[in-house]
Amino acid sequence: MQPEDLVRDHTIYSCVMGSRAFGLATEDSDTDRRGVFVAPTPLFWRFQKPPTHVDGPLPEQFSWELERFCELALRADPNVLECLHSPLVEHADDRGRELLALRGAFLSRRVHTTFTGYAVAQHRRLAAALRTHGAPRWKHAVHLLRLLLTARDLLRTGELTLDVGAERDHLLAVKRGEVPWSEVESRMTRLATEAEHALPRSPLPAEPDQRRVADFLHRVRRDSALTAAPDGGHAQDAAVHAPRTERP
Predict the structure, then answer these.
(1) Whole-angstrom Cα distance, residue 53 to residue 216?
(2) Would you say the pTM of this structure is higher than 0.70?
(3) Is residue 96 a contact partner of residue 199, using CB atoms and an 8 Å limit?
(4) What structural domains does the chain harbor?
(5) Strand pairing partners for 11?
């Protein structure tokens, strides 16, 4: 089975991300697609395991295998958490809808470390570009501002919202280079401070609900083992290929 086949035949959830999901799309914006697929359980019984992620097959498309996706989401990875909250869902089967229903189980105060940590790293790159080229990369500055806005509001409300709403015009002005860098940098600092102040009073739990996520993953793997065979045959054929314990 080719990696592209896993995306085409076993995707449980897919959505549009990037500027279109953030409410920042313009006429020349790409369509970034993200998704989650479930590799059939019998594929894990081989020495060569299925991939944890797949690029394509469409342009600007990227998908994670369910287990890897859940691992990253429990760590509060910004890209993965935001994928679960896209307002532009293109596909969700029963398992995909159950994954969406688990969105709250992944959220915790860990988002402060991951979101702001990513922003700090991005700020270093912007500063380096400013020293090297005399100007920051404005598109990256917009991404950093948007991420800090998201982190602050998530910590304040416990809800992850992607669309920038009333911030759209200002962020697009930053992208066009119409806002002085000093003003942009000052706002970055202010947003980071506001996120820090929101942390102690955040309605988010200290840790994600790993047990709920683990139960969901176990059920998906079990159901897949009961209905799929490694060679694409019927469920009853899968038992022939199941690993056996050798007796001494």
Answers:
(1) 19
(2) yes
(3) no
(4) 3-106+208-241 (3.30.460), 110-201 (no CATH)
(5) 37
